């Protein structure tokens, strides 16, 4: 630790701290443009000049590390003169168009000029004209005239994200920030440069000219699209959400968002947004619709008892709403048929669930079938952050497709689809052959040979698994047996082992906390009971089962069989003809509540706007129904999801140590296997703003597979069939994908018409350029 | 008695004196008073010589207004059809003339000199809604009869 004096106050900071951070610890504000804690020192803007005793000239506080006994003055005639000079230079070619600049009012150039700057400039020459409102991509605009060349954006993209898409071009006063080859930036993280830009150079295109700091309201929120649950801020004006910003939390979050989360906030204003209740295909008043549903519930409960009613929750509901629904189901209806709309079969016990702190300490990361860049982008950024601090980070991808990337290089172990848990178990058997749990696991796999993986690779993988000091595994939740294998691995390793589940829905842990069963088997059981006529009335909240559930036939037969299908949501679900009552619900940002993310961390999202039309939160519905069924619910004791000793993390639960032998996988028969996976652009609610960025050809297939069929360009449509069902998928030929694999995002193209496994492809059509 | 007559004479003396003095009131609306050249009445939004609006919808008037009487909604101008002199313009500009205290801070804050307070002060309406001046109304300031 080092002691130094800043403005007469003594402070003790660790070695290597920059003066600017030491000053921040004392609450002394040093103006900065180029320095950002996540990006490290650069010293490009010269704004942070301070006076250090025994140094001949002013020093930049962001690049000067503290030393013992240092005496720093952050104000005084010399410092003021230096800063005044820097600002005069920065403003030489600045257009001074604050009235039309979106940053006006929250701009560091304005603030520092007001505080430290000269009253006027001495330059009479005409200002240099550069590009104004040029696009970086459809979401980010650049005004090169306003840029102070701090390089935060360039360094963020190049060093932090690792995708070099922004650069400095030109020399001297003609230097500008632009995209590489003037092509639109395609990274998943371009929106962050808007938050990073200290001046009005990088602007959000959807927010362009929409608000001003004094006529907007900011509410702290949590991004609702994927299980990462990034901390964010809503900007609302006149009852409309018009912007999302990152919300940094000291020592925990940098406040990064992916473009999906940052610009996908407009789903509440989708043209199809439900604002009226629809009963039997006819628009109805809210009172009549709720009364009608209550009558149905009463009829069924009178005839069948509570077990005639099934509840399925999904979508972006809060933990509190799930709790209110669970209480209604248990106390008023008297049913325990409560399920979560899951897309994957796996479930992760709370005891294995790691946090993002584990990512910050990890030395080995195993991606189990999940590519974080495409499923949970901000976790990819967190891994990049770890890679920057710990370049020896070992990344291992284990899945049917390569999961590592240029930005996150590592070893890829390709296994046949659905055999990741077997591969992991065999690697463990190679490393811990004597362990009884492992012997039980691989007991029936004596004859089994993993295709395409050598014994050497498994031994290597086993060594990595044992040798890792801090192991983090990202799991896509596809194979239910994996949880058991991971439990054995965590017990064997005796060193920190953290699993992060990347599957959805975003708040599934919250629904579990509220009392819904998170297990896929229970969802299937509810649907099967509905198909078999045991459940007469199916209440679906927020879920679009025909799109989400992997087996579409089961959902369709269940929907056909139930007497009443009641769906609450913010958008009409697929198969609206089956729905007896469609009730408009309140969306994210319209209701206050808690979301629990993939770390099992509780995070509060405030409400910023009012729900439109008849849309209302679940509590209103269940209260009305409870009153109509003459069993009013008592809300006197408020349920607090935080009510425990473990702070904002869910309480720890021991991992079940039940181990059974893994089953032999079925023999692969066909030459082509369908693999589905989560895809950030289609998970969550659809957004109109994002349309230009959503990939049009998201399917991936090896070029050799489609070449014979005449697909000469990189993209096209292929017909995929299985039995009597067939779908058309828009694919990109990707040499990274191994032969015999067709990867399709789940939920798009009606993928759930087919079951994962052997398919045949035919009928290629080339990309049609419109 | 004599005192009473004295007092009455004095009082009536004032009355008769005032009767022949010039009048302080004027017969409005046939006659109108001259106002000070910088009198602050109803607002207007000015245009430049090319007919483009000066207002860019920056919202500073909204921010500075002590009575919260102004609402500004800005937007980007459609491509190739400039509405103001730059690519940003005010879609909505409303002044609530019931709330307005005619302090002139908006005029003072306006960086483009678009908001101006005219001498027009004949503000009366049968309906509260008519007292909210929208952008169209402000762009065509009334001329005093």
Characterise this structure.
The complex is a heterodimer of chains A (770) and B (145). By secondary structure, chain A is an alpha/beta fold. Helix content of chain A is 26%, strand content 21%. Chain A has five domains: 2-90, Ubiquitin-like (UB roll) (Roll), CATH 3.10.20; 124-269, 2-Layer Sandwich (Alpha-Beta Plaits), CATH 3.30.70.20; 277-343 and 507-628, Rossmann fold (3-Layer(aba) Sandwich); 350-501, Dimethylsulfoxide Reductase, domain 2; 673-766, Barwin-like endoglucanases. The model of chain A has no long low-confidence stretch (mean pLDDT 92). Chain B is of the alpha+beta class. Chain B has one domain: Alpha-Beta Plaits (2-Layer Sandwich). Helix content of chain B is 23%, strand content 17%. Classes of the chains: A alpha/beta (770), B alpha+beta (145).
Helix count from the secondary structure assignment of chain A: 21
CATH architecture level-2 label of the largest domain in chain A? 3-Layer(aba) Sandwich
Mean pLDDT of chain A: 92
N/C terminus separation of chain A:
64 Å
Could you tell me which chain pair has the largest interface and how many residues each side has? A-B, 14 and 17 residues
Look up the CATH topology of the largest domain in chain A.
Rossmann fold
Number of helices, counting only DSSP H or I runs of 4 residues or more of chain B: 4
- The computed structural class of chain B is alpha+beta
The major pleated sheet of chain A works out as: 7 strands, mixed
**How many domains of chain B, as an integer?**
1
